[in-house]
Amino acid sequence: MRDAFQQAGKRVREWCMPNAGGLKPHQVAVLAPGNSERDWPKDFQTVPLTKNFDAWRKGKGVLMSSWARFKGLEADGIVIIETPTNDDDRERANRYVARSRAKHLLTRLSRSKNRKCVYF
């Protein structure tokens, strides 16, 4: 999971750099399974993170949220962290919610068979 968050941080920094992606923190969200919350970072080095939706809307940081909590929302850029877990109906529905919330940019990070984190 640590590798996935490092890769997510790299992508978020690329998107939020003024001379590169140029996105503002309130335009970007990182979505991860809810059961991974204890592993969530506090920031992505130079880019602050927040779990608070109001703080995110005010531009206080990039939103870090679970797939399910992001239901009904959208962002210009989304990084989704996926882990191999049970593939029940509820999880499939939550994964779909996460994958369908990006307006313009979407990066999906998932563990490969050799346990490395890969982009999709």
Low-confidence stretches: none
Number of DSSP helical runs: 3
Shape estimate: globular
* Domain count: 1
Strand-residue proportion:
25-35%
Helix and strand pattern = HEEEHEEHEE
Summed over residues and divided by their number, the pLDDT gives a mean of 85
Could you give the count of β-strands? 7
Q: Sheet with the most strands?
A: 7 strands, mixed
Q: Helicity level, as a percent range?
A: 25-40%
Secondary structure category: alpha/beta
Distance between the termini: 16 Å
User: What is the second-level CATH architecture?
Assistant: 3-Layer(aba) Sandwich
Numbering strands along the chain, what is their spatial order in the largest sheet? 2-3-4-1-5-6-7
What Rg do the Cα atoms give?
Answer: 13 Å
CATH classification, class level: Alpha Beta
Q: What is the CATH topology assignment?
A: Rossmann fold
Q: Looking at this structure, what is the CATH superfamily?
A: P-loop containing nucleotide triphosphate hydrolases
